[in-house]
Amino acid sequence: MKTSIATVSISGDFRDKLKAIQSAGFDGIEIFEQDFIATDASPREVGAMVRDHGLEIMLFQPFRDFEGLPEPLRTRAFARAERKFDLMQELGTDLVLVCSSVHPEALGGIDRAAADFHELGERAARRGLRIGFEALCWGRYVDDHRDAWEIVRRADHPNVGLILDSFHSLGRKIPPDTIRRIPGDKIFFIQLADAPAIPMDLLYWSRHFRNMPGEGDLDVTGFMRAVMATGYRGPISLEIFNDQYRAALPRLIAADGRRSLVHLMDRVRQAEPAVVADLPALPPRAHAQAIEFIEFASGGEDAGRLETILTALGFEPAGRHVSKAVTLWRQGAINILLNTEQTGFARSAFVTHGTTVSDIAVRVDDAPATLARARALGTDLFEQATAPGELQIPAIRGVGGSVLRFVDPKSDLGRLWEVDFRLDRPGPLAGAGLTRVDHIGQTMIYAEMLSWALFYTAIFEAAKAPMVDVADPDGLVRSQAIETAGGALRVTLNGAESSRTQAGRFISDTFGSAVQHIAFATDDIFATAAALAERGFPVLDIGPNYYDDLDARFGLDPDLLARLKAGRIMYDRDRGGEFFQLYGRAFGEGLFFEIVERRGDYTGYGAPNAPFRTAAQRRTARPTGMPAR
Ligand SMILES: O=C(O)c1ccc(O)c(O)c1
Ligand SMILES: [Mg+2]
Q1: Predicted complex: ipTM over 0.90
Q2: Do both 378 and 444 map to the same domain?
């Protein structure tokens, strides 16, 4: 199945767009008329340029306000169409998208529109061109693919077909199964876009908030299942109008686009194997069992400071790597690696970012299969030479150039600690009562959030939690959790819009997106708090107003409230249970640790507390070179 993307979806000039689209592996493009006009090349040159990039122009679009006009506008519309046919022939494409009219003088009437399309089909046929009709969901008389299909059906011309755009159908809540009654050979082209479920004006929503399939909330999978059921096997094309994409790196968006299509068609195949027997199979999304380890890259005095903090958190050194300057720190089921190598990837990560999480390893059912899936999704593989006898842990590039590794219990990777490490002390260490990694918080610029959410949900059997806004004193930070059903893998993506927020400063201070915090779980937050106090773990101060408000909101038992206040522990509650949070002070470039206890089935991350936590962090932050106002 051929893949395509509309040139509007990508930023940059025309050449930037083509390069990015080519390198992401698309077969073709939808050329947006405006993008063509903005170039200084002739139509023939543009056509040649596209083909020089190994791409096909699959569609020219849009042709607006055509059907149902009274004379003399009608005659003019046909003359306009002939001009565009000339252009298409020079560009070298045979299909034009006509979107439903919004013309104030359009008359409506299905038969009138059908007659117009029949005539347009005749004219197109003379030149070997084809017409595709798309219902814009804000079209004046045609805003539903069912009406567009009826017009195409009555136009009854082999050169006139239907174009379906998932946004227009799903944005209007038209059941996708209505597509199944359309013959596949009358569907000329498929445009795909997702969007977040935010109630707003349809046109504004479409032009600013579309995103890649899987990045939003629309049932694009259901839409595509219905399309495939018709027998359609033409191109699938992304048509994404999105404000962030227009400002993002062309290559990033193009690669995400390809990834979203691979992921989408895999979902379609799984949901409806009978209708897509011809699609290639992909290894399934990985089931995450646990976070196997988190590796810090550090060096010099910074490494000593991190060791002090780990010690204060109750971790103890439990072994060393057989050949590298990597120490294993353990507590409960948590494995932290501290890498102080002077060469290689960890070193360059440290030099670039300061003390930073360079690697995260996730234990999955089948590591090689996970790697194969990630590769099919177009992620970048990561390899670094290993000494003989040491394990080559499958790895890809993740957030901010860090490394995401996959281990599994069924291969040699399950013996990682015995093979690659010399363990000083077997068995778990109780320490301060930290049991496991609850979640990892990765901070990035807001424009990258959709991309990383897609990355995680396409690789792992994981879902997105609703996005929450966190009001940092210096700007808004958006937070989106990606989590597996049992919570074995929980990642919170924090997107900073302003460089002055805690998150924004972290990005500039660390030169890019990275893990900003790690939350460890405990089964007894008060016992852990006492143990940490004994070890001198520096805790973030939370002001008294917070506890007064907490009392007002929840009417807590006075004894509990006093204990929370004394321990600087934050509290939240939802329908399922209770949540306790204790924050450490930031260190290094703004990294911090958090300790949490979940009681019952609390599902969140303490979002109501985040504004007060960020304010407290701002009060205690060291100067960062940012003007403190
Ligand atoms: O926003 C628009 O006008 C517009 C144009 C062409 C399309 O294919 C579309 O889906 C929307
Ligand atoms: Mg469209």
Answers
A1: yes
A2: no
